[in-house]
Please model this.
Amino acid sequence: MGAPKTIASGIADPLQGYPEDGTMTLATIKKSKGYAVSCSDEEILESILELAKNESVFAEPAGSILIAGPKTLTNEGKIDKNDVVICVITGHGLKEPTAALEYCMKPPLIQPTSEDLKRIINVLARK
Model:
């Protein structure tokens, strides 16, 4: 079996050479009565954008999956929308900038005049 295909390369681990880590992880999830979910690359990219817009956090794909996962669990009724969920995002977007650059808004190219800068600021303020 090859490596999983995902933009979240930081967690795309086929566990070759140490499959006991996967077994231990599943046992820990079951023992703690926790959950494990998978998220699509699209959900991961949406989470990168959401973190940037709402929290001013530029997270790498593997870090932003911590936002996508609880949404899935809420939609499945496994956690309540009023539950407190703490997400520790340790990987910044500069570790894996390609995904965000392909998905997020491209920076506008402006001429070096104050009028053009004001126009761009006004456009961005409306978003």
